[in-house]
Amino acid sequence: MRSISSRVCNPPEPPLMIATDVNGTLIDEAYRHTSRARDLAETLQDAGVVIALVTSKTLDESLIYAKRLGLREECPGYIIVAEEGGIVYASNERLLPERFAVLAKPPDRRLVEELVPERCRGSVRWLDMLTPEEVSSITGLPLEEAEAARHRRSVLALHGPRDCLEEVYDALAARGYYVRLGSKFLMVGVGGGKAEAIRYVKRNSPVLRSTPVVALGDSGRDMGMLEEADYAIVVPPRRGEPLRLHRADYIVAAEPAPTGWVEALERLLPLIGAYRGLTR
Question: Which CATH number fits domain 105-191: 3.30.2320.30, 1.20.58.220, 3.30.980.20, 3.40.50.2000?
Answer without folding.
Answer: 3.30.980.20
